[in-house]
Amino acid sequence: MSTDDRIRKQRVADDLAEPAREARRLAEKLGLAPFDVNYWVVDYDEMNELIAKQTQFLGGKAFEIVNNDDPAHAFLQESNDLADQKAVITHVEAHADFFRNNEWFRLFGTSPDAAAMLERHGETVAEYMADPEVSREDVEAWIDHVLCLEDNIDQHREFATARASDEESVTPGDLADELEGMDVSEEVRTEVFDEEFLEAMADDGEGPTFPPTPETDLLAFLVAHGKAYDEEAGKATDYEEWQREILEILRTEAYYFAPQKMTKIMNEGWASFHESL
Questions:
Q1: Which residues are within 8 A (CB) of 222 and not within 5 positions of it... i.e. 6 or more apart?
Q2: Which of 36, 114, 133, 222 is least surrounded by CB atoms within 10 angstroms?
Q3: pLDDT tens-digit profile of 256-273?
């Protein structure tokens, strides 16, 4: 960023200091109790980059982005005129109240410290990307695979670090025997569960184990029990350390973003309603 750009953005930010204080006073007068908010002024390119990182761009102009954190961070579009900025700030204050007090967001924690968390995650992934013993392409592919499953968590349960259950795991029974009790068509049996496949899946004492009760959080299940197919060994083997750590990182972020997905309409309605007041 050039010196002129910094000076211009600082000038805009300085003009917003008093409106931000007034918006907080009005929010508290209306009975809101928001997180403290740090306001940042960004240009078009920076705003589009932020939107892309949150995978939420649906077209149109973005006036602001605000995140669930304590303090929250709000990014305002530099090109907004002063009247727009004042309206957006009141909107942001209501979002910050929603983040702090809504029960869905409290499942992740009352003080998420998201900025520090996401920074740590980014640094960890960057280290693996730069590790000469780990293929960058493999890391990128692994991230893509996990992100395809990011909504397969238990969004109704308080977030906790994934770990194997203390209860004794169980080994699934012989697949051929289990198929007898399943309503599987002859076509499926012939095309999918042929004799060669059943022999390959036969328990040799080193097969997979599963938790004693069903795990609704698929990513947690993979952290605790997942394996990767090793072409050289011709069988599934334990994840590499970097695979398991990135899986847990992306699972944590899935829980962080889950309440935003689940409450999008309510959250925007809450902010728009209080902005109108």
A1: 149, 247
A2: 133
A3: 999 999 999 999 999 999
